[in-house]
Design brief:
Layout (H helix, E strand, L loop, with lengths): L2 E6 L5 H12 L3 E3 H10 L5 H9 L6 H4 L1 H17 L4 E4 L13 E7 L2 H12 L3 H23 L11 E4 H4 L1 H12 L8 H22 L7 E6 L2 E6 L6 H13 L6 E6 L20 E4 L3 H13 L4 E4 L2 H10 L4 E4 L8 H11 L4 E6 L4 H10 L3 E4 L4 H17 L1
Parallel strand pairs: 1-3, 1-4, 2-3, 4-5, 7-8, 9-10, 9-11, 11-12, 12-13
Antiparallel strand pairs: 6-7
Length: 405
């Protein structure tokens, strides 16, 4: 039995087409939410983290937390699990996770002209034409971000697919018929070679997930499996290649099914960037809020030397906006700022985002301010100038408290 994967622009009738194809073939229809649910149940990141990795913008904290890389490795592994069942129609963004070397997968892209899509959006969402076109533009931006991350290409590139179908020209029913007829063809019948390709894909995904779980970014490594052997290519310069090679081989060999592991420099090994392994025991989603720009930028740089990554904003309003979009684990907050002051920021944070641990760091506070902040739920109250080692220690304690929650 073959697998049909369908990636589509929004408002192209993809749901109706996918249901029709599944009905014609007698296959189950699976979607992104099915994949997200399975991965979350099987020990992967929470569903919301998986959705954010697939549909949202990359977090400002991601270079330190590598949340997207971890979620991406789990989603790939989940898709590998799905592919083992063979008879399936899959609709959604995660269709981009399926490698094109598995010959019994029919990869389909559904597209349509903007006017066709806008007309559907106005009917389905009750929008006017301008609102519909704006929504389609946002949807396309999200699709492009995801496809470029997953496959390094624009999602509408025809070479990514076996079939690129303009539904506004062919119609929904005819499109479903074309897909179904091709899916039944002998070229898409699974064989020993294509099933081995699925097993190799599954093993490479399991190794990627194990590496990502230890802070090794899948974007810096290329994993290929063949039988019980795994090859890992390093695509960034590293100062201690022998040590990294030893660590990667040990991690790969700890994955069930791997008997041999080989690590070597990849084609991009000599690029300018330096390989960096994330340390998940250290704070990685830290937001520094202070209107003294030189001070807070220097503080961020000094924390980076201690492997503590942070983002910086310069006022309370911007801090609250960023937290609403991308919640940190630890927030270091000045009290005296123009506009919304630190005490008001703390009050709103503890009301709306109680999981965020807040450290007050101020040069203009008082004992009364300290008492007020601690009663409102601040994790700690420190005064400037602060010893960087003391601040680092308090931040790690706050980070551990946030993780326990």
């Amino acid at each position: 039995m073959s697998v049909v994967s369908i990636f589509s622009g929004s408002f192209c009738g993809s749901e109706e087409i996918a249901q029709d194809v599944a009905g014609r073939l007698g296959y189950p229809l699976l979607r992104d939410e099915d994949l997200i649910g399975k991965v979350a149940r099987e020990g992967g990141p929470p569903a919301e983290s998986l959705r954010r990795a697939m549909f949202g913008r990359t977090s400002v904290f991601n270079q330190f937390s590598q949340e997207k890389e971890k979620a991406f490795s789990w989603l790939k592994l989940g898709m590998a699990w799905f592919l083992k069942q063979e008879d399936m129609v899959f609709l959604g963004y995660a269709a981009q996770l399926i490698p094109n070397y598995i010959s019994h997968v029919l990869e389909v892209c559904l597209i349509a002209e903007s006017k066709y899509r806008a007309d559907r959006a106005t009917r389905e969402k009750g929008l006017n034409q301008k609102e519909a076109l704006a929504l389609i533009h946002r949807d396309d931006e999200a699709a492009i971000r995801w496809a470029e991350y997953a496959r390094g290409r624009d999602p509408w590139a025809p070479e990514l697919y076996d079939m690129l179908l303009p539904v506004d020209k062919t119609g929904l029913e005819e499109t479903a018929r074309i897909i179904s007829d091709h899916a039944k063809g002998p070229a898409l019948k699974p064989n020993s070679s294509s099933r081995q390709a699925v097993r190799d894909f599954t093993l490479s995904c399991a190794v990627e997930q194990a590496l990502a779980g230890e802070g090794h970014s899948p974007k810096d490594l290329q994993v290929k499996a063949s039988g019980d052997q795994v090859n890992i290519l390093i695509n960034k310069k590293v100062m201690r290649l022998a040590k990294l090679t030893e660590d990667l081989e040990k991690l790969a060999l700890s994955v069930d099914g791997v008997q041999q592991a080989k690590v070597e420099p990849g084609p991009d090994y000599y690029q300018a960037d330096v390989y960096r392994r994330a340390d998940f025991q250290l704070p990685s989603k830290v937001l520094l809020v202070d209107d003294e720009r030189e001070f807070v930028q220097t503080l961020s740089e000094r924390l980076m030397l201690r492997e503590i990554g942070s983002a910086v904003v310069y006022d309370g309003e911007e801090a609250l906006r960023l937290v609403s979009e991308d919640e940190p684990e630890v927030l270091v907050l000045d009290l005296k700022m123009p506009g919304i002051d630190g005490i008001e920021v703390l009050r709103r944070l503890k009301r709306d985002y109680p999981k965020v641990e807040v450290i007050i760091l101020t040069g203009h506070g008082s004992e009364r301010d300290k008492e007020t902040c601690m009663q409102m739920g601040a994790f700690a109250y420190l005064e400037k100038p602060v010893d960087i080692d003391q601040l680092s220690q308090v931040m790690q304690e706050a980070y551990q408290a946030a993780r326990k929650r």
